[in-house]
Amino acid sequence: MSLIKNKKGDKIISVYWFAVLIIVAGGIFGMVYVFYGASYDVREIEANVLGNQIADCVSYGGRINGNLISNGQAKSVTGENFLEMCNLNFQTSEWEEEQYYAEIEIYKLENMNSPFLEINTGNNKWLSSCALQTDNKIEKLAKCIRKSFYSVDDSNNQYIVKILSVVRKTEKNVKL
Amino acid sequence: MSNYKRIGKRAQIGETVIWIIATLVIVGVLLLFIFISSLMSKVKTIHVGNLETDVKVTNLLKEKTSFAYQLTDYKNRELIEGILKEDG
Prior knowledge:
The structure holds two protein chains of two kinds.
Chain A: H1 2-37, H2 43-58, E1 59-60, E2 63-64, E3 69-70, E4 73-74, H3 79-85, E5 100-108, E6 117-122, H4 127-133, E7 143-152, E8 158-167, H5 170-173
Antiparallel strand pairs in A: 1-2, 3-4, 5-6, 5-8, 7-8
Chain B: H1 2-41, H2 60-71, H3 77-87
């Protein structure tokens, strides 16, 4: 009689062990899914790369691009022209809306109050994110990177170049 | 005989309680680990400063500024450096 009872207990214990095994396996699966399911946020790097690309286009070897400023005279450059000139394409098939915005301001050293040449291109909807990002980092907003450097034109006039590059792409970089 | 039965029942109850507590501990530890991994997953932001490359990292903008300085014999250098410092 006692032998039969023990067999029943063994069966229950082995079922329990299977249950524990499933719980542990489920837990490990959950941990891996939660950690690797979260996407990497590379927007800061992307904005940096965009800023560098623009900087390379605006000034190379310390001299400002002749298509932008020549002999102290600013040339009329639209946002679209600028993108074409710099071999940039802000429209991608993956997104309905443009996910990038760039702002280039070139100041004469003598007058830092108003830009000598200003170029805006891309979707300016994302510009509002930059003002909010200065106070605290909000992941769902677009990432903004500001860069500035010094350059001269072909007549050795001195300029300060300020670049703002903005990348949104929130859905692909942040777990919503 | 009835005393033996009572002791046996008590032992069975005790063992069952231990198993239940053990199960709860296992589930609790797993939930804790899942919570920790969810916290760790939030820090998956790649910053430029964290990137390791074989190539010596040079600051592109500093390079450009330096080239421009050389072209103008470092004219107004302090003023320019002040402006660039302000912009960060």
